[in-house]
Amino acid sequence: MHSFVNYLKKRLQQPLPGRDVQLKMAPEPVGNDGPTRQMDPSKHARQSSVLVLIYPNEDMELEILLTLRSSDIDHGGQISFPGGRSEEGETAVETALREAREEVGINTEQVEIVGQLTKLYVQHSNNDVTPVVGYLEKQPALSLDTREVEEAFSVELDSLLGKKNLTVEDWNLRNLTFKVPYWDVHRVPLWGATAMMLNELLELYREFKSQKESSG
Fold this sequence. Notes:
The protein is α+β, with helices and mostly antiparallel strands. The protein contains 5 helices and 11 strands.
C-alpha cells in the first residue's frame, strides 16, 4: 500500500482542514452584491456520497478517478467523482460504492475504504455530500453507464499541486459574474463542488509530502 494511504488512514481520524480549504476552490462573486455561498445544509437537504478513488499508476504515482457527467443529468457536462444520492437506509460508504459500481463498473469488493473527508453542501442541487476516500492496488478496469457518464479518466495528484494547472477566470453564472478557480487538466474545467472536495485531499497530500521531506 502506498505510504500516503497509510498516512491518510490515521489523518482522517483527526480534525480536518475542512471548509477553509474547500472554499479556496469556490467561485466568488465579483463585487459586494453577489450571493454568499451557503455552506450549512438546509433542513431538507438530500444525503449524497461520492467515491474519491485513489490508486497507483505504472510508475507508482497516485492518481484519482474522475468522470465527465452525461449532458442530460444533474450537473451534466461537468467533471465529478462517481457518486449520487443515498437510498433509504444506506450509509455514506454504501452509497459511494454502489454509485461507483453502477456508473463506472468498479469492482467495489476490491476497494479499501480509507475514511471520509469533510462534507460539502451543494445548494444548487440541495445535496449534502460526503466524500468517501477509497484505495485500489492498481488502476481499475472500467465499464461506463453512458446514461450517466460520458467519460472516465485519471489525474495524478502531483499534477494538481503546482500552480501551472491552476487557473482563475471570470465566468457568468446565473447572470452574475464570479471569479472561478479551476484545474486545467482536461478539455472540461475541473471546478465547483468537485474541486472544493478535492482541494481538501490535496491539502492532506501536501501535509504528507512536507512531513516526508522533513524526516529525510
